[in-house]
Amino acid sequence: MKKVRKSRTLSSKWLKTKILLRSKEVRAFVPETKLLNSTNLFTMLNKHRMVYVKPVRGTSGQGVIRVERTGGGTFTYKVDKVKRRFVTYNAMFQSLSKSKLHRAYLIQKGIQLLTYQRRIFDIRVMVQKNMKNEWEVTGYIGRVAHPKKIVTNYHNSGKPISLELLIGAYLSPMNTQAYINKLKILGLRIAEQFQRQHPGFKEIGVDIGVDTKFKPWIIEVNTAPDPFIFNQLKNKNMYRKALRLARNHGRFRR
Ligand SMILES: Nc1ncnc2c1ncn2[C@@H]1O[C@H](COP(=O)(O)OP(=O)(O)O)[C@@H](O)[C@H]1O
Ligand SMILES: [Mg+2]
């Protein structure tokens, strides 16, 4: 008999957003998301002023674009370190269309991320099935962007830093712990929701952005999350645990 292997990964950010929106508990943390077309982008810019345009199947921050409508009525977009300005929406969209080739893109409400030394940062929360087959948060870490970039990814010049340090720059030690606990619970809720929709999933890595009002937003859920980022922390406990469970789930086997 042929063994059916339940899928363990999902690359489409669009499908993953839909999974999140099906959960009442998680929905409130999902930034508004639409597929890219000219009308949707115009509407989203009027509503949110700043949005992110991303490949539906991107990784490592590649091809991620930040689009803005300025107070003066001009439109800008920024890819990598280069920002371009346009006097009309149509001129901007035309230029954008040329650079985005033939891939599918989505538009997401832009989060005004917290900063550390004037660089934006976001958070990776690692949630894995443990040896008892229960979901467990095995790691969390902050990722600080390169000063000129709009993405925080490690493979895009982002710098991993302990979350205690980053949140601790804003909150007292007690409130920092409480806030991190809140993020861990959110990570668990997301894992449970993914499990309900895709029983084969064993690990997820959630990218969480915290805005200037301290509200956490789910930027992305990764279904093949990188445990090696935790090796950047001085304390190796998270790294050891995350890697051990990832190996246990059959990843990184030689
Ligand atoms: N809606 C958003 N608001 C603010 N920053 C964002 C947003 N979407 C993406 N980013 C930034 O871009 C990075 C890469 O986007 P992400 O959706 O995680 O795609 P990738 O698969 O390339 O990692 C994020 O880690 C974050 O730093
Ligand atoms: Mg990401």
Question: What brief labels describe this structure?
Answer:
254 residues, alpha+beta, D-amino Acid Aminotransferase, Chain A, domain 1, 2 domains, 6-stranded antiparallel beta sheet, 7 helices, 28% strand, globular, binds adenosine-5'-diphosphate, binds magnesium ion
Characterise this structure.
The chain has 254 residues and is of the alpha+beta class. Strands 1-6-2-3-4-5 form a six-stranded antiparallel sheet, with helices on both faces. The chain has helices at 13-21, 24-27, 38-48, 89-99, 163-168, 173-197, 237-248, and strands spanning 33-35, 50-55, 65-69, 75-79, 82-86, 105-109, 115-116, 119-129, 135-144, 159-161, 203-210, 216-222. The longest helix is centred in the C-terminal third of the chain and has 25 residues, at 173-197. The chain contains seven helices and twelve strands. It folds into two domains: 33-109, no CATH class; 113-248, ATP-grasp fold, B domain (D-amino Acid Aminotransferase, Chain A, domain 1), CATH 3.30.470. The chain is globular. The two termini are 27 Å apart. The protein is 31% helix and 28% strand. The structure holds adenosine-5'-diphosphate and magnesium ion. Magnesium ion (MG) is lined by residues 153, 207, 220. Residues 153, 207, 220 line the site of magnesium ion.
